[in-house]
Amino acid sequence: MSDTDQSIGTTSLQIAVAGRELLDCPVLNKGNAFDARERDLFGLHGLLPARVATLEEQVDLARARLAALPDNFARHIALREIQDRNETLFYAIIDQALEAWLPIIYTPAIGRACREFSHIWTRPRGLFLSYADRGRIAEILSHPRWDNVRVIVASDGGSILGIGDQGANGMGIPIGKLSLYTACGGLDPARALPILLDVGTDNTALLEDPEYIGWRHARVRGADYDAFIAEFVAAVDARWPNVALHWEDLSGTDALRILGRYRTRMCTYNDDIQGTAAVTTGALLAAIRAGAAPLAAQRIVIFGAGGAGCGIADLLAQMMVAEGMTAEDARRRFFMIDIDGLVREGMAGMTDGQRPFAQPADVASGWKVADPAHVTLAEVMANVRPTTLIGTSGQGGAFTHDIVAPMAAQSARPVIFALSNPTANIEAMPQDLLEWTQGRALIGTGGPFAPVSYAGTSRPVDQINNSYVFPGVGLAVVVGGITRMTDGMLLAAAHALAGLSPAAGHDDAHPAPLLPPVSDLRLVAMAVARAVIAQGQAEGVAPQAAPDAVEAALKAAVWTARYRPYEKAETTRK
Ligand SMILES: O=C([O-])CC(=O)C(=O)O
Ligand SMILES: [Mg+2]
Q1: What is the 567 CA–ligand 1 centroid distance (Å)?
Q2: What's this protein's family per the entry (predicted)?
Q3: 177 is catalytic
Q4: Ligand 1, atom 8: nearest CA belongs to which residue?
Q5: β strands within 438-559, DSSP E
Q6: Any catalytic annotation for residue 106?
Q7: Distance (Å, whole) CA 504 – CA 515
């Protein structure tokens, strides 16, 4: 298969398979849109009905069928089946109306799709590498089918969205994230590889489900788990030296440990930690432009001190330092709350990600608290009087009226980002947040919400989702030849995102969103990619290239959902 010149619609692809094998290959299949010439060339006569359809006709028909289905879960399943049959058609369906389709192919529908993955799974996609396969990972990866892979999303299903351990059912997420790499970042689907590292599960409902598709075993942990990951990473690195290895939805401590271990050795990043941090940082920058307290005056409470919470604190602190604060002063601005309450020095079980943000052991000595050994969110809120409250806890409804309302009394524009996903796990509903703060809060959520009305105005709800960042990062790696993902590049992504914010001219009469709309995610991915490549060049982790050349390469790399004419490669098998 040759690369195509996207600017010339007629550039053809050299195809080395034919007949039924061609129809069974989702990245090449056109269904009944193969024309007479191609039916001749590839031996498709008889395998397809006589009428030759266009992509547009296929899209219209599919959209009508999808519209007739009872709900978005049914649409998710149907779309995934289309994707497994014909990827071009799948992306053409969701093209043009990303805002409408994202909640169906991704969050929140994907939450239920993961819970029920064993029951809706029909065809193989990507790779399931189970612990029982250890010792032969390199062999499995060696299949020529994967020769063109440039971006891998890998999960062990340990902490899917806000819904916890889903074992092998977590495969829904690598598949979904890679769909967004293509839909938003223009990644050629032939270069995408979703991987589920099946190390067992501790989810008893799954272990007891006779239909469970995964390796029926308690989750492997500790040194055995790390050795399995090490074998996987070494095999990936040897097979694809320039691949982007994206980790997703590992449990918090595994996520931080693995990222720390490998990020200096290869181009690898963790989306929950770094992607979420970059989008949150970009959104906070935008909120500050819209009237939130300036960075130097921010006090930030983060409820949920796992990978995402720690990643957000880390990147925000780096931004504060970049703007002139000392590292010590910056760290003290954060109040992280985990299962054991406010994270303080000397606490048992503190993770490496939490340690820099531990408050002094006696921080609460002058506060009124019920149990000094466990300082709660409500107690922190009452005593710290934060300007920003961020939820990464997975605990639906944790931000109650009593937690939130006092913020409005203390700051003109409190910032509240309730990021947990899917909808049942969100810390507070946007409508409530606005009402409890008399419409003054600058709010954001992790998933999609319809605009909410407050005092006669309709207010869009910003989706502070890492899909504003990772598609652009992937594009940067593929086009820019990036070899390491640095914090500087994440900050550059955050600034690029804030640069597109509609919020700069915000006033009370004309409330504007913090982030550009989801329908602009392609534009956002381009801006993020540009910024990440420029920063990578400045840091010496990407080859130098003139901005014009980068721009041209970015445009040329973007895959679009249309059928290209096929020619027979020399080696076509019939
Ligand atoms: O997937 C999303 O929508 C955001 C995310 O990474 C998570 O919640 O784990
Ligand atoms: Mg995630």
Answers
A1: 40
A2: Belongs to the malic enzymes family.
A3: yes
A4: 161
A5: 442-445, 452-454, 457-459, 462-463
A6: yes
A7: 11
